[in-house]
C-alpha cells in the first residue's frame, strides 16, 4: 500500500491566514513546514486541493514536493472554490498527480431538484472533464460524499453516476456511508474493481460528518482494510487526519502507524 495524507485540515489554516494578511513569504514558510512534518512522519504522498496549488504556485509546489520526496496522490478539484472544467486535467498532468478527484458542491440551482436530477446534472457537467482525463490517461475519481443534499452517498446513488459516466471511478471513503446507514466493509466489497483511491477515515457519529482520529471512532477500519486487500486493492491509502490534543507531528505519525497495522504491515 502507498500512504498519503489529506493536506486539507492543515492547509486551510495557512490559506485563511494568507487571505487576510497577504504575507506571501510567511505563507510559503508555513506551507513548507507542513510538508516537512508530513515527510518526516513517513508519508510518500499528499492529496492537495486545487486552491492550494493556486495559492502556492505550480512550480513552487512541484519543487517543494520534490525536495521532500513527496508526490501528489490525488489532485482535488473543489467546486466550492472554483468552477471545475477540463483544464484541471492539464494542471494535474503537469503536477504528476496519480489521479484527479472531483469534489461536488451543493448549488442553489439544486433546490427542489430530485436526487436523480442532481446526479444527471453531475454527469452532464463532468462528462468533458472525464473525457479529457481518459485522453490523457489520468485516473479520475469521485467520492461517496457526506453532503447528503447531493444524493451521492448511498450505494445505488454512487452506482448511478459511475454507470452513467464511463471512465469515472470511485474514491472509497471508509466512513461517509455511516450517514446513510450502510456498513463500510460491505460498501467497499460492493464496489470491488471500481475503487481507484481510498480515504482512510473514522467518524465520531453516524448522524453528522464529524471526523474522529483513526481508530477511535465508529468505523471498524481493520475490517475495512481486510476487505479491500482481499478484493485486490493495492493503490493509494489517504489518511484523513483529525488533529487532536497530540498535535500535528504526533498525529501524523500515529495515524500512519495505525493505517499500516490495519493493512497487516509490521511497524
Describe the structure.
This protein is α/β, with parallel strands linked by helices. The chain is built from 10 helices and 10 strands. It has helices at residues 8-21, 24-41, 50-56, 58-67, 87-95, 115-136, 155-164, 184-190, 221-230, 247-262, and strands spanning 2-6, 45-49, 71-78, 100-103, 140-143, 168-173, 195-200, 202-203, 211-212, 236-239. The strands form 2 sheets. Strands 1-2-3-4-5-6-7-10 form an 8-stranded parallel barrel, surrounded by 6 helices. Strand 6, helix 8 and strand 7 form a beta-alpha-beta unit. Helix 6 packs across helix 7 (155-164).
Rg, nearest Å: 18 Å
Helix content: 40-55%
β content, as a range? 15-25%
Number of strands: 10
Query: Biggest β-sheet: count, sense, barrel?
Result: 8 strands, parallel, barrel
Q: Would you tell me the overall average pLDDT? A: 95
Could you list the spans in which at least 5 consecutive residues all have pLDDT below 50? none
CA-CA gap between termini: 14 Å
Q: What series of H and E elements makes up the topology?
A: EHHEHHEHEHEHEHEEEHEH
Number of helices: 10
Shape: globular
Secondary structure class reads: alpha/beta
How do the strands line up in the largest sheet?
1-2-3-4-5-6-7-10
Amino acid at each position: 500500500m502507498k500512504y498519503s495524507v489529506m493536506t486539507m485540515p492543515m492547509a486551510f489554516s495557512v490559506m485563511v491566514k494568507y487571505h487576510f494578511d497577504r504575507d506571501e513569504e510567511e505563507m510559503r514558510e508555513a506551507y513548507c513546514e507542513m510538508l516537512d512534518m508530513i515527510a518526516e512522519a513517513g508519508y510518500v504522498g499528499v492529496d492537495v486541493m486545487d486552491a492550494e496549488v493556486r495559492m502556492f504556485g505550480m512550480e513552487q509546489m512541484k519543487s517543494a514536493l520534490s525536495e521532500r520526496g513527496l508526490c501528489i496522490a490525488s489532485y482535488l478539484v473543489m467546486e466550492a472554490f472554483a468552477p471545475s472544467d477540463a483544464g484541471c486535467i492539464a494542471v494535474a498532468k503537469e503536477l504528476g498527480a496519480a489521479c484527479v478527484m472531483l469534489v461536488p458542491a451543493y448549488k442553489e440551482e439544486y433546490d427542489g431538484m430530485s436526487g436523480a436530477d442532481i446526479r444527471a446534472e453531475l454527469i452532464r457537467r463532468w462528462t468533458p472533464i472525464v473525457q479529457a482525463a481518459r485522453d490523457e490517461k489520468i485516473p479520475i475519481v469521485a467520492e461517496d460524499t457526506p453532503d447528503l443534499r447531493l444524493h451521492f452517498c448511498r450505494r445505488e446513488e454512487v452506482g448511478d453516476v459511475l454507470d452513467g459516466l464511463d471512465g469515472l471511478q470511485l474514491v472509497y471513503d471508509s466512513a461517509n456511508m455511516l450517514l446513510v446507514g450502510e456498513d463500510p466493509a460491505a460498501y467497499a466489497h460492493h464496489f470491488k474493481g471500481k475503487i481507484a483511491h481510498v480515504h482512510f477515515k473514522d467518524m465520531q457519529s453516524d448522524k453528522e460528518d464529524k471526523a474522529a482520529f483513526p481508530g477511535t471512532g465508529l468505523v471498524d477500519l481493520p475490517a475495512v482494510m481486510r476487505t479491500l486487500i482481499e478484493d485486490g486493492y493495492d493503490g493509494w491509502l489517504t489518511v484523513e487526519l483529525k488533529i487532536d490534543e497530540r498535535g500535528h507531528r504526533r498525529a501524523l505519525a500515529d495515524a500512519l502507524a495505525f493505517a499500516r497495522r490495519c493493512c497487516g504491515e509490521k511497524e
